[in-house]
Amino acid sequence: MKKTIITILAAISIFGFTVTEAQASTWHKGMPKKMRGTWKVPHDKIFHSGAKIGKNYYHFCANDPDYLNNTKYKYLGNKIYKINGYEPVYTKGRVNRYIKLISSKHMKVSFNTNFKKSNSPLTMYKN
């Protein structure tokens, strides 16, 4: 009887507590199809700020350009995407942008995952 109980406990301890880790989200080439197109910043009459997003680039123009080429993205959940791309103007290296897709015609862009007003994310609407 004791041998049976010990054998059962040993089997449970070996097989019962095996934890399988969740698969992390993977990087995908290019930009999500939902985001592609021309986006405009509302109420910007001076600089006419806007972004053009294509298959593998994100180009934002205002008084200060923000270009990302050869992009890849990762979905972080809660409609937030991490965009990684080569920035040829200032850093001349790979940088990250975070985009929260509010709807098919409304998105917010930030340099980190904090999309609150205090962080002042950039709001854009699709044409």
Write the layout of secondary structure elements.
Elements: H1 2-16, E1 28-29, E2 37-40, E3 50-53, E4 57-61, E5 66-77, E6 80-87, E7 93-103, E8 106-110, E9 122-126
Structure report:
Keywords: Signal. The structure is a single chain. An eight-stranded antiparallel β-barrel has the order 2-3-4-5-6-7-8-9. The protein has a single domain (25-126), classed as Lipocalin (Beta Barrel). The chain is mainly beta. The chain has one helix spanning 2-16; strands at residues 28-29, 37-40, 50-53, 57-61, 66-77, 80-87, 93-103, 106-110, 122-126. Helix content is 12%, strand content 44%.
Q: Residue-averaged pLDDT, rounded?
A: 86
Q: Find the structural class using helix and strand composition.
A: mainly beta
Give the termini distance in whole angstroms: 75 Å
Per the CATH scheme, the topology name is Lipocalin
**Extended strand count:** 9
At CATH's second level, what is the architecture?
Beta Barrel
Oligomeric state as shown: single chain
Give the CA-based shape.
Answer: elongated
| Secondary-structure element order, N to C | HEEEEEEEEE
Beta fraction: 35-45%
Name the strands of the widest sheet in spatial order.
2-3-4-5-6-7-8-9
The tally of domains stands at: 1
Query: Can you count the helices?
Result: 1
Query: Which percent range fits the helix content?
Result: 10-25%
- Cα-atom Rg, whole angstroms? 22 Å
Weakly predicted, low-confidence segments: none
Largest sheet: 8 strands, antiparallel, barrel
Keywords: Signal
Keywords:
elongated, mainly beta, Lipocalin, signal, single chain
In short:
This protein has 127 residues and is mostly beta strands. 12% of the residues lie in helices and 44% in strands.
